[in-house]
């Protein structure tokens, strides 16, 4: 199998070319959340807005996205039915969870990765001093069928002109939009339904769902560090596996796999070579390598070099929280 330079470039989403959507979710007008930007890199993601740009539409069994936010901007409490994994590309972030966001929290630094348990309400905010970016891996081709919002998020959004229809689409009264005939507003979760959402503490979550970048860098000194997967530091099977690679652990010889592989550069510049050419990947770039393509990676410069490698697996993209 071979790819031309043009074909490979079409499978690379450059950090500098990312196109944001500022109206992706129901809290787009809510004060405190109205400056966030959502990016859909691979797959349809979970955006509720027709304005969302999708860079690569084909899904490899999972979705890749990102969120960019200025300091003090937060993403409102929501839940997913399948995996939502973040690693911090830039900045310092606080993740919090629970019905009201006060069941537990953890602060992540650059490179740290968080496999957020399914079925819990979660949110996050940039607590750094500059614009921050977190990269996301979402389980399943359809990313779990959308977002489940905490009731107060829907109520707050309605007060600021945004209504979510039961069809999962947003309607903005500030633009003169209204729910189409026959479409009802998304119903609020009842008190009985809310009881099904766990309220784990930080002690329940952090040791089993968070991996620190510098711990992984030490593990990846001579071989790839298995982060998420059957033998990973975080032992979930969410439909994909994640490894951290460094200059000391990248295979020297070209290799191929029968699975989809996505390369997400954390630090340094990496040269990707294959039968057909070579390209340089920079921090924040995302590359979708097709199954069967023999390829090799090598850092292009001296200094710190790391990337997250995500591969599809045969596991169903189901729940990860075991309780």
UniProtKB/TrEMBL annotation:
Residues 71-134 form the Cupin type-2 domain. Keywords: Metal-binding. GO terms for molecular function: metal ion binding. InterPro entries: Cupin_2 (IPR013096), GPI/OXD (IPR051610), RmlC-like_jellyroll (IPR014710), RmlC_Cupin_sf (IPR011051). This is Cupin domain-containing protein. It holds the Pfam family Cupin_2. It comes from the Bacteria.
């Amino acid at each position: 199998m071979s790819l031309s330079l043009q074909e490979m470039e079409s499978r690379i989403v450059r950090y500098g070319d990312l196109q944001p959507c500022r109206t992706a979710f129901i809290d787009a007008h809510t004060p405190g959340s109205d400056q966030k930007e959502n990016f859909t890199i691979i797959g349809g993601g979970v955006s509720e807005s027709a304005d969302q740009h999708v860079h690569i539409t084909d899904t490899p069994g999972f979705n890749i996205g990102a969120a960019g936010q200025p300091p003090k901007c937060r993403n409102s409490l929501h839940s997913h039915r399948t995996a939502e994994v973040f690693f911090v590309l830039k900045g310092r972030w606080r993740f919090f969870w629970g019905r009201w966001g006060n069941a537990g929290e953890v602060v992540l630094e650059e490179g740290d990765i968080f496999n957020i348990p399914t079925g819990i309400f979660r949110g996050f905010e940039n607590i750094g001093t500059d614009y921050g970016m977190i990269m996301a891996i979402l389980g399943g081709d359809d990313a779990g069928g959308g977002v489940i919002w905490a009731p107060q998020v829907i109520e707050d959004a309605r007060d600021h002109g945004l209504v979510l229809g039961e069809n999962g689409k947003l309607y903005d009264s500030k633009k003169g939009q209204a729910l189409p005939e026959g479409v009802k507003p998304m119903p609020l979760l009842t008190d009985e339904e809310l009881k099904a959402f766990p309220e784990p503490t930080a002690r329940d979550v952090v040791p089993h769902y968070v991996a620190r970048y510098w711990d992984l860098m030490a593990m990846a000194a001579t071989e790839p560090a298995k982060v998420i997967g059957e033998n990973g530091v975080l032992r979930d099977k969410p439909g994909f596996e994640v490894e951290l690679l460094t200059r000391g652990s990248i295979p020297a010889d070209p290799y191929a796999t029968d699975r989809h592989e996505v390369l997400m550069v954390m630090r340094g510049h990496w040269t990707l070579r294959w039968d057909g050419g070579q390209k340089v990947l920079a921090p924040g770039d995302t590359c979708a390598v097709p199954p069967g393509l023999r390829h090799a990676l090598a850092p292009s410069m001296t200094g710190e070099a790391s990337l997250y490698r995500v591969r599809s697996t045969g596991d169903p993209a189901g729940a990860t929280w075991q309780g």
